[in-house]
């Protein structure tokens, strides 16, 4: 628009380029999303938290099988702690993926539509029509 080049071929090429960039962004976003999701599951923190979760749960199950398990609720506390650590780990991953969701879609559609409207208005004949309340711009076929 700033170059004041309203040539139809030029405007069509720019609209196509906008669509191509949007498609490339979506592909790149999908690749990044998948890579981050996979690496978050295999990160050192996730592995350690997963191990701690399993260790607490396993230790609780072992204590439950001993005479001490009948005397004190330690086994249940350890199992609950293990579950809590596992839930925390999953919550952290879920929160990260939700943040990524907000960056998902590039909002290119309004730009592309505006460009197509300018192209239509500048490069095709129109007829002006009016009624008592409104003015209409009608394309001539």
Q: How would you explain this protein's 3D organization?
A:
Residues about 70 have low confidence and may be disordered. A hairpin with a 4-residue loop joins β1 (about 125-130) and β2. About 75% of the residues lie in helices and about 5% in strands. The protein is mainly alpha-helical and about 140 residues long. The chain contains five helices and two strands, in the order αααααββ. Strands 1-2 form a two-stranded antiparallel ribbon. The longest helix is centred in the first third of the chain and has 35 residues, at about 10-40. It has helices at about 10-40, 45-65, 65-70, 75-100, 110-125; strands at about 125-130, 135-140. α1 (about 10-40) packs antiparallel against α5 and α2 (about 45-65) packs antiparallel against α4 (about 75-100).
List the helices and strands and how they pair.
Layout: H1 8-42, H2 44-64, H3 67-71, H4 74-101, H5 109-123, E1 126-130, E2 135-139
Antiparallel strand pairs: 1-2
What general form does the structure show?
A: elongated
Structural class: mainly alpha
Instruction: Give the integer mean of the pLDDT values.
Output: 74
Work out the strand percent.
Answer: 5-15%
Distance between the termini: 26 Å
The tally of strands reads 2
